[in-house]
Amino acid sequence: MIDLQDILKKDKIIKVSPDETLTKALSRLSTSHDAGFVFDADDKYIGVINPYYSLIKSSHPGNSKVLHCLHHPPKIYIDFSLSKVAELLIQSKIHYLPVLDRKDNFLGIISARRLLTHLKELPIFKEKISVLFRFPKRPLVVIYEDESIAKAVHIFKTSKFSKIIVINRDMKLKGILSYYDLISFMVTPKGQGGRREKVGDKSHINSQPVKNFVKTFVLTLKKEGLVSDAFKLMIDKKIGSVILVDEERHPVGIITTRDLLRYFIDKERFQFLTRASSKIRLFLSRKRT
């Protein structure tokens, strides 16, 4: 079994200065789960910048200095197990986290995709997709393509999801809407007098239909497929989710990076408990004899 040291990423890390503006820093990120790693003048790691925590949760204006928008995610130490790493990736809502030694020196980063790439050949991922749905999940969140962006934003804020499945009035899949795609309208710097300078009329944007912002290219699978099929699509295409559809292209579910990480954690715990139970039974049987 591989350990964290084997998959640590040490190069091509997005490094950000604390004196950069939030808008400039976020322009280097691609999704709401991305992170820029912030280092001070002495090249000491001091935190991360992330769209979810900097904009969606905290509502910092775009011209804020990065130093005032820092988020401090969970610390991952180099001796952590991979299941512990997976747990912290889920808890943090960030798919890129810093890896430190026990003296808190920055060693590199680990990403959800990098972790999953090195786990994809495990036998546990050869099972049917249905195993991911053995226990009740949160209801599928959808929006009609002709509904307003204002409604979509409301759904994002209340559901705390980063993506919404978009359907037409026949309930067929039309695409996916990402909160990150709307972020550029939330980070417009404030002008003189404290008012936000407008790239476009925000009220007009809120009234526009979702279909004007939807990504129509989405990856889909049937629920009868294998978990490894979803794995391969998500890793090869560098995406965070695969939508499950029926024969008529009605969305019936979604598999996310979080689902795959959670499945790995649950399997690891089950195997640990199975081994522990076997050892206890062996110990008790020897004690009787």
Give me the secondary-structure topology.
Layout: H1 4-7, E1 15-16, H2 22-26, E2 36-39, E3 45-49, H3 51-56, E4 76-77, H4 82-92, E5 96-100, E6 106-111, H5 112-117, E7 142-144, H6 149-159, E8 163-167, E9 173-178, H7 179-182, H8 202-207, E10 220-221, H9 227-236, E11 241-245, E12 251-256, H10 257-288
Parallel strand pairs: 1-2, 4-5, 7-8, 10-11
Antiparallel strand pairs: 2-3, 5-6, 8-9, 11-12
Compute the gyration radius: what is it? 22 Å
Number of domains: 2
Summarize the amount of helix as a percent range: 25-40%
Q: Which word captures the global form?
A: flat
Poorly predicted segments: 189-200
Q: How many beta-strand elements?
A: 12
SSE pattern: HEHEEHEHEEHEHEEHHEHEEH
Oligomer: single chain
**Major sheet characteristics:** 3 strands, mixed
Total helical elements: 10
Quickly name the level 1 CATH class of the largest domain. Alpha Beta
Protein name: CBS domain-containing protein
Domain CBS: 69-127, 136-192, 214-272
InterPro entries: CBS_dom, CBS_dom_sf, Diverse_CBS-Domain
Keywords: CBS domain
Jot down its keywords.
three-stranded mixed beta sheet; about 290 residues; CBS-domain; alpha/beta; CBS_dom_sf; about 20% strand
What does this entry look like structurally?
- The chain has 289 residues and is an alpha/beta fold.
- The chain folds into 2 domains: 4-117, CBS-domain (Roll); 123-262, CBS-domain.
- The protein has 10 helices and 12 strands.
- It has helices at residues 4-7, 22-26, 51-56, 82-92, 112-117, 149-159, 179-182, 202-207, 227-236, 257-288; strands at 15-16, 36-39, 45-49, 76-77, 96-100, 106-111, 142-144, 163-167, 173-178, 220-221, 241-245, 251-256.
- The protein has a 3-stranded mixed sheet.
- The radius of gyration is 22 Å and the shape is flat.
- The model is unreliable at 189-200 (pLDDT under 50).
